[in-house]
Specification:
Elements (H helix, E strand, L loop, with lengths): L18 H9 L12 H10 L3 E6 L7 E3 L6 E3 L6 E8 L7 E8 L4 E10 L2 E10 L7 E4 L2 E3 L1 H4 L20 E10 L9 E9 L11 E4 L1 H7 L8 H8 L14 H14 L3 E5 L7 E3 L4 E3 L5 E10 L6 E9 L3 E10 L2 E10 L7 E4 L2 E3 L16 H5 L6 E8 L9 E8 L13 E4 L1 H8 L7 H11 L17
Parallel strand pairs: 6-11, 18-23
Antiparallel strand pairs: 1-16, 2-3, 4-5, 4-13, 6-7, 6-9, 7-8, 7-12, 10-11, 14-15, 15-16, 16-17, 18-19, 18-21, 19-20, 19-24, 22-23
Length: 477
């Protein structure tokens, strides 16, 4: 007897028609159900007092559990996991420094950056963690619910389990709203990717609230993003990947034209990147204490010893990349028919998986370019360094990835410009795009780089409202 055919499940909408309104309502809510925005500082200070945190510098050759591999000089962990510091040789075909060698962090395993959402009093809240990272200047910042490498959540270190991981791994306990692979810093990582996830807990699920965690609205996060070094990089990148609301607003370029421009940029760059032994990279001094450039520019590789009472392991040693200066990262923008357009840059970074990603207009550490003539410095850098005060719509200093970089900070800005500064026909490698167009691209991996995602997070949470020439708010936020 023939078995009856299985009934197909009913068709469902491809997107959640109510999600955009729910996110907007959360972004408009300045205080949360559990914690007011004014009380976040006190809560963070309380979590800092609750644990012992300490970071001391130690020579690279004295790092417990780490060693320079015989033959290559690569800095590796004794388990063969976590990450390694290796050498990289790059040729990018154009620019004042079109070939170079450098140390780079290689971390082939994909980590999870996950935010858990739940509705309280009709408003979406997001479960944030007060997480200590050894590279943060102030150590403790707001991180996603889960921020863990595969080595961390598989307990290679022998420590405690990662809290709330069950919502993001395996079958999960909620509804996945976003799950996309995104790159990290292409100048310091070799082809590093993390899953950026937003998961909403089932309405009838009682989510336990552990120490060092709190529920905040998008509006609260937006207000905190106006301040220096409060919301960490991993939170910012997940926020930027939230599902984009449908938009029928126009743009200077159609989505297809913008996609074509980006495809041409990816295709035209002749980028050759090879991993090489760390011991032999040109232009770098390789010592037991530190690895640094002969001219002192760019960054150095240093070692630290960490105590952290709130982490899965209470103490460990590791290398970190330490930049030699504070960066400047800025979107220059103009409004056309009342709609803000950002001047984006198709930027080559040696560690990217696919030649270029869309970056802010300016993304540079000024000291690394000061010795060069103005024609060889990044376009628009001088404007980003000294903008007219009445044209700055947003400015804050944010830390980069504190788990791998030491005191890595950049001043993030939105700056309004005009035709004399940013022409309608931009220079090669640059193009105009609306925030909505970039939001749509963050739903795909390896299109929008991590620095641009930080600035998008500031827009999406209401940390900044872009203004037109008349001073009136225009566009999202």
């Amino acid at each position: 007897m023939t078995a009856p055919a299985a009934l197909a499940p009913p068709l469902r909408p491809r997107t959640d028609p109510e999600l955009a309104a729910r996110l907007a309502r959360s972004a408009a809510t300045a205080d949360g159900h559990f914690l007011s925005t004014a009380d976040v500082d006190a809560w963070l200070a309380d979590r800092a007092r609750a644990h012992r945190f300490r970071v001391d510098r130690v020579p690279l050759g004295g790092l417990d559990g780490w060693s320079f591999a015989e033959g290559t000089g690569n800095l590796v962990h004794h388990t063969g996991r976590f990450f390694s510091v290796e050498g990289l040789s790059a040729s990018v075909g154009e620019g004042p420094a079109h070939t170079w060698q450098q140390p780079v962090i290689r971390q082939p395993e994909v980590g999870v950056l996950g935010l858990l959402a739940k509705e309280f009093d009709g408003v979406l809240h997001f479960l944030m963690q007060a997480k200590m990272e050894p590279g943060n200047r102030n150590l403790l910042q707001l991180s996603p619910t889960v921020q863990a490498t595969r080595s961390n959540y598989s307990a290679v270190h022998g420590g405690s389990r990662v809290k709330y991981l069950e919502y993001f791994a395996g079958a999960g306990r909620g509804r996945v709203l976003t799950d996309v692979l995104q790159s990290e810093h292409g100048s310091w990582f070799f082809r590093k990717s993390n899953r950026n996830m937003l998961v909403e807990a089932d309405p009838d699920t009682d989510v336990p609230l552990h120490d060092d965690f709190c529920w905040l609205t998008l509006g609260q996060l937006g207000r905190l993003l106006r301040r220096d070094n409060v919301v960490n990089m991993d939170s910012r990148t997940v926020l930027a990947c939230f599902p984009a609301p449908p938009s029928d607003a126009g743009a200077l370029l159609t989505d297809a034209e913008l996609q074509s421009w980006f495809t041409v940029e990816r295709s035209r760059h002749d980028v050759d990147v090879q991993r090489v032994p760390l011991a032999g990279i040109r232009g770098w001094r390789h010592g037991d204490d530190v690895i640094e450039r002969d001219d002192g520019r760019y960054f150095r590789v240093v070692g630290v010893r960490v105590e952290a009472g709130s982490r899965e392991v209470g103490g460990w040693d590791q290398p970190l990349i330490e930049p030699t200066g504070t960066g400047v990262t800025a979107f220059l923008y103009r409004t056309f028919e009342g709609l803000p357009h950002l001047l984006v840059n198709a930027k080559v970074e040696a560690g990217f998986l696919d030649t270029v990603e869309i970056a802010p207009t300016v993304q540079a550490t000024p000291g690394n370019w000061a010795h060069l003539p103005s024609r060889d410095r990044p376009p628009f850098l001088d404007l980003a360094l000294d903008p007219p005060a009445d044209r700055v719509r947003y400015a804050a200093v944010h830390s980069e990835e504190g788990g791998r970089f030491l005191n890595a900070e950049s001043r993030y800005l939105f700056i309004e410009t005009d035709e004399s500064e940013t022409p309608l026909t931009p220079p090669p490698g640059y193009q105009w795009a609306t925030p909505a167009q970039l939001r749509a691209l963050t739903g795909h991996g390896h299109y929008v780089n991590v620095q641009a995602r930080t600035l998008l997070a500031c827009l999406d949470t209401g940390a900044v409202r872009l203004q037109g020439a008349g001073g009136a708010p225009a566009g999202p936020g």
